[in-house]
Write a structure and sequence with these properties.
Distance between the termini: 54 Å
Strand order of the largest sheet: 6-7-10-11-5-4-1-12
Largest sheet: 8 strands, antiparallel
Strand content: 35-45%
Helix content: under 10%
Radius of gyration: 22 Å
Number of strands: 22
Number of helices: 2
Shape: globular
Length: about 325
């Protein structure tokens, strides 16, 4: 039987080739500790355990992928890359159980081929508390080290797309992980999980309020008016809020590995801000809007509704938003 360990994972160098399993419905696989998101791995998928940094664990994912969905590459020392829009499934055997969903641009290493299937592997990082470890991985702990009691096993966070309810004590809705409280949610309130980040879940809450208690009486009053310059100056203040802007489309790009505010390979718009003097903005494009975006012409002005992901990207200091609608 596998079991979970908490803050102290007790994994010495001598135990590094041991195994673990994903213990939650879906967990994000990242390029580095708390780094770029590469894909999601399903519950029960076995992983080889590597080194540890804090509560992050280096893991190696192995499986089979449909050969027409990958291409040969030489990027960053890997020899294969997922090369289809929307990504591709990784399976435990040809045509078998889905072990993970790999995003477009996911880099892999080939092991062997069998018909139209390719056996691949990739080493990356995962949040340690979302793993259950083989007890054999603990058997070689450093001589003389004092035993460490595992933490109480945390309640697994629901998978992306799941419908959940607030617990008996209610929950605090925050603008970002570890950030200020936005609202208190009553026990039993229905929520929808839309994203996972380690031990945090981003949720969507729907309900009704008296229109007279809103500032204004139309939909525009629910959209903040903020400039790109203000977002850069206060990158966390407006996170999660919506804007309606007129931007100038420059090009459709795919996120390189160094752009850690995106999924690797995630499509995004490079555009000029509503005030051209404020420079550029990036708008991540969801799959359902990709066809519409591909029809835009360079330098075309377009009205967009977007949700603020961050006011200042890690690489270029540019606001990053999630595109919600084109007008």
């Amino acid at each position: 039987m596998l079991f979970r360990v908490g803050v102290a994972l007790i994994l010495p160098a001598t135990a590094f080739a041991q195994t673990a399993e994903v213990a939650v419905e879906q967990e994000v696989l990242r390029q580095a500790p708390n780094g770029r998101r590469l894909g999601v791995v399903n519950r029960g998928t076995p992983l080889a355990v590597g080194q540890q940094q804090g509560r992050w664990v280096e893991v190696t994912l192995e499986g089979w992928i449909w050969t027409p969905s990958i291409a040969v590459t030489q990027r960053d020392g890997h020899d294969r890359i997922v090369d289809v829009p929307g990504g591709e499934n990784l399976r435990d055997e040809p045509g078998g159980r889905i072990a993970a969903r790999l995003l477009r641009g996911f880099l892999l290493d080939r092991i062997e081929e069998r018909g139209q299937w390719t056996h691949v592997h990739r080493t990356a990082w995962m949040w340690g508390p979302s793993l259950e470890f083989d007890p054999a991985a603990l058997a070689g702990r450093t001589a003389g080290a004092a035993p460490t009691e595992p933490e109480e096993r945390p309640t697994p966070v629901a998978a992306t797309g799941a419908s959940v309810v607030a617990g008996p004590d209610g929950v605090r809705l925050r603008v970002a992980p570890e950030a200020d409280t936005l609202a208190a949610v009553s026990p039993g309130t229905a929520l929808a999980v839309v994203e996972r980040q380690g031990g945090w879940a981003r949720v969507r809450l729907e309900g009704w309020v008296p229109a007279a208690e809103l500032v204004g009486s139309d939909q525009d009053s629910l959209v903040v008016e903020v400039s790109a310059a203000a977002l850069r100056a206060n990158p966390d203040q407006y996170r999660g809020q919506r804007v309606r802007w007129e931007i100038q489309f420059i090009s459709l790009e795919r996120a390189e590995p160094v752009r850690t505010d995106f999924f690797e390979g995630e499509p995004f718009l490079l555009a000029r801000a509503p005030d051209p003097s404020e420079g550029f903005v990036y708008l991540a494009v969801p799959p359902e809007l990709l066809a519409d975006v591909e029809e835009l012409e360079p330098l075309q002005s377009v009205n967009v509704l977007a949700q603020i992901r961050t006011g200042r990207s890690a690489l270029m200091g540019v606001p990053v938003l999630d595109l919600l609608a084109l007008y």
